[in-house]
Amino acid sequence: MTSPIAPARASPWFLRFFGGYTCRLLRKNFTAVRLEREGDAVLRSAADHDGPLILAFNHPSWWDPIVGVALRHRYLSDRPGLSPIEMAMFERFGFMRRLGMFGIDVDHPEAGRAMVEYVVSCQQRDPDLALFLTPQGEFADVRQPIVVRPGAGAVAAKLENVRVLAVLSEFVLWTDKRPEVLLLVRECARPEHPTTAGWTRSIRDGMQAGTDQLAALAIARDEAPFLSMLERRGSNVNPAYDLWQRLRGRTARVSDHRHEAKA
Hints:
alpha/beta, Glycerol-3-phosphate (1)-acyltransferase, 2 domains, 9-stranded mixed beta sheet, 9 strands, globular
């Protein structure tokens, strides 16, 4: 029986190039990528951690891997990165191998065990490995309760001194014509019994709590709790109107007028 795993072949220079490319892509398509302020501190602390990391992302959209690459580029570029992707996509887009992605045949009966063994072997070579996962395993609306597959918990249970971060995203249309990406990052509590089941519950609970917090921030429609990780340059209104407003010494951003009205 063939192996369910196709190994990654990460290229540091290609990762740097692609990280810069994803940042430009996000600036082009979104008003801003906003990271909740406490999440900035969590990521900076994680970057200094002496040991492996697991970043557990929710999966509401096609953009999630792009956001993950940008987040890695900004905070964790010094760490070897690893991420699974379905074998069909891996074989179709060969460049993904150079991003640290490895193929996995999810229909193979030994896929789960093989993934854990592969990640553990990679971490033995690179002790500070950062593993990027979407434990939900499929696209899921942010309003649905978090349900995670056991793969992330199984890997966490096998890694010594691991830290697990829940990375939650939501895509909102506030007051500009382009959407905004909201991010919140929290560390998942280390379970009293760090088994697969214990870690799976911890990851689920951490992701659900983060999702609920981020939903409240999205509803509040306030930029203040966030840092701008990436922001589109210039106005998002109309070039002629933008020029007219600048000549008058004003800003064309609708969101800024909102804050002025509140002052």
